[in-house]
Structure formats: C-alpha cells, structure tokens
Design brief:
The protein is an alpha+beta fold and about 450 residues long. It has three domains: about 1-180, Alpha-Beta Plaits, CATH 3.30.70; about 195-330, DNA polymerase, Y-family, little finger domain (Dna Ligase, domain 1); about 385-459, no CATH class. The chain has helices at about 1-5, 25-35, 65-80, 90-100, 120, 130-145, 150-155, 160-180, 210-230, 265-280, 315-330, 355-370; strands spanning about 10-15, 45, 50-55, 80-90, 195-205, 230-240, 250-265, 290-300, 340, 350-355, 385-395, 395-400, 405-420, 425-435, 440-445, 450-459. It has a six-stranded antiparallel β-barrel. Strands 2-3-1-4 form a four-stranded antiparallel sheet. The chain has a four-stranded antiparallel sheet with strand order 5-8-6-7. Strand 13 and strand 14 form a beta hairpin. Helix 9 (about 210-230) packs antiparallel against helix 10 and helix 10 (about 265-280) runs parallel beside helix 11 (about 315-330). The longest helix is centred in the middle third of the chain and has 22 residues, at about 210-230. The radius of gyration is 32 Å and the shape is elongated.
Amino acid sequence: MAEAGLTSYRIACFRFQTEKTPEDRRGALEQSVAEACLQWSPQVAIRKGEAVFLEIGRSRNLFTERSMTARLMALGSRFGLQAQVAIENSAAHALAMARHTSEGGPRPGFDSLPLEALESFMNPFQALTPEASRSLRQLLVSVQQLGIRNMGEFCQLPICDFPSRFGKQGAALISRARAAQLVDLTAWPGFHPVEKISEQLDCECENLEALAFVLRGLIDRAMARLRGRNERASVVELELEFENWSTLKELKRNWRIELPVPQGSAAGLLPILKERLDHFFGKNALPAPVRKVFFNVCDTAPGRGAQKNFFSQKEEEAEARDSLIARLAERLGSERVFVAEKQERYLPEKSFVKLTGAQTALKANSRDSSEKGAPEIASRPTRLSSQPELLTKIHKTLIHPDGRRWNTLRWIGPERISGEWFAESSFARDYYRVVSAEGEQLWIFVDPSAAVYLHGFFD
C-alpha cells in the first residue's frame, strides 16, 4: 500500500531556453507557459528562467505520459521555445533528467547521470545562492577525489560517513537524491496567474496576410492561457505599431472589440479580427509596415471546462457556432444578431428569449446538463416568424397577403400544441409541416376557427 502511494505522483518538468527572448519579456513568458499548463493540472510551479513543473499523476486516466510529453512539446512550439520534457516521481529528478538529456538522444538512467546533477536536488524550484554554489562545488571536488563519477555511485556511499566527511549539507543531499527516485518531498511554491492576459511580438508585416499569420500565434498563446483558467475572451484589444514613416500621422492604432459571444479558440477569434482589419483598411495595403503587435484580453467569461471531453464533439461544435454568431454580429451589427435560449412556454413565438453575449456565456456551462434527459419533440423550423401570418386557403393553394402562393403537395401532421388555459393568451393549434410544389416546406397551423396561419420555414 505504501509503495502504491509513493508512485501515485508523477512530475513533468517542462524545461525551456529563453536566451533568445528579450530579458524584459522572460518573466511574462514563464507566466504564460505556466498558465497554459493549468489546463492539464492544477498543481503548477515555476523555476525562474528555466522550467515549469506540473503534477500529472492524478491525470493519468486522461493523459498518458507519452501524450503529455507531446502536448508539452507542442506548447513549447506555440510559444516559440526550444524545450525538453522529463517525467519522473519528483521535481528534482525530473529537472535533472531534463537538463542532462540531449535533444534527440537516448534518455539516460538515474545511475548514469553526472555528479553535476546534484544541483537539481538542492532545490529544484529555485537557483542556488552564491554560498550554496560554493559549498556544492567543494562537495563535488571531494566526492570526485574518491573516484565517484555518477549519481549511481554517489547514492551507494554509506550515509553514516557523510556528516563527518561532507557535513550536514552532504548528508541532506544524499538523502534527497535517494528519496527523489521514489517520491517528491520538496515543498512546492504557490503559483498565481497574473490578472491581465497580454501578448506582444516584434515583427515586420507589410500586408494583412502576414499580419494575420502573426496574429494567429499571439491569439493561440492567449487562448492557451485562458483554457488554463477555464475562461473565454469576451472583450479583446488589438494594437498595431507601425514603422516611423513621414507619411504617417499616427504610429499606433488600436481596436477594442466587445465580442457578442465569448471566444475560446484562435480558430473562432481570428476571423473576427481579420474582418475588422479588412473593414478598416479596405482593399488597400497597410499604411506602413507593422513592427510590433499587441493583443490583450480585457474581459473574460466562464469557460466550457478546462479538460476536453474526448468522447464528444459538442465542444468543437459550440466553438464553431460561437464564432459564426460573432462574425455575423461583426458584419451585420450586434443589434441584429442574437442567441435564442429556450424557456418553458408552449406558445412557439414565446418559447425563447433573446440573449446577449454576456448572458450566453453564463448559460454555456449549464446548457449541456439541462438538455440531458429532455423529452424529444417534433422538428422545428429553422426560420420562425415573430408573429403568425394569416393565409388564405383555396383548395390546395395557400396565398400570403403579399401575393406569394404555394401549391401544397403534402401535409405532415397534425401536432397539437395548446396551453395557458389560465390566461387570456390561451390557445389551441394543430401544426403541420407542409411540402409545396415550389420546393419550400412551411410550418402551418390551423386554429379552432379553421383559420390557416404561416409560422415558419424549414430550410
């Protein structure tokens, strides 16, 4: 039982190189990577300037270690980082393996690690102080004089001789190295995401196509961070900084975009930004090359869940629907596009309410659960009239007040819909799906007085 408990924790070390990143951006880059890792594990820690750790033992039913390694490597590519990934039973062991595994080379065993790997076992989450570094170098020299060359030989030394030969630090270090192969005993520092998500990139974009390529990378990073927080973007800001040409009056231009429906993926948000830029610049080229792009998430809404459902396509379908609604609102105007939310009313024209983008976000998480177990009803038209329209019926022909005519071929039904007997709006209707010779399918109802009404169309 104890052995099972020891091996239940698995620590992934995502080690990256930031030498090519400007020094003032390194801290923000580490934060961004750590926030993105929250989508796989709530336990995340940072070693400043070098690595991000995440505990994945409790996610083993969702991700294999091989798939987690692939996901972390893909995350590194997304942020433009060269990375190594190692998964072991402790943060110190994982850091040592990530440091001493060559790119594309075989993975070394613990026993074959060089003695320099001892630095990882001092404190995997924090760089050594100058005094601790001097003590470690002295310890390494003393151990090497005994003919010890790797971690396997080091851990076989009798621990009882360490205090007298190497002091308390040496005794503590060999204890940590031995224990790190089995369990993580190091206290993890807390990690708290920054309040505002902001991404920026230096570039040289001379046209909208090149700018869209750069934007996709920035949005992809921001969306990865939002997924770690289980949030979606509801208000975003885009700022472009142009080259200092004499013909330009303003070197910076920015757009604040309130999304009608919150977005959680680059595939959904990028077309919206492209349409905004196309509308602003028209068919003309950019007024000058863009040298810097800033993308900020100003406000967020609750997400659909940090973990992906592998057995359903509903998440992808919902993202595609949200993107379509937002693009329609961007092109037609937010006042002309809305989302219909069902409510418990039998009267068809009153069976839904119009939702704004913010209200849609609050309903998103509860929609799937509320629809489970709901009774099946007959199909409904894709276009529903706000109010029923009275038709004139002459034999098999239906005539609209505006002159349109439909020669009916088949009446499918009826479906009786009635209710609200307790109110003045009580009703009783027999609905039919009517197939016409003109190719249109109508949603028709007949009331108790035998009057015929048009209420919608099936597309």
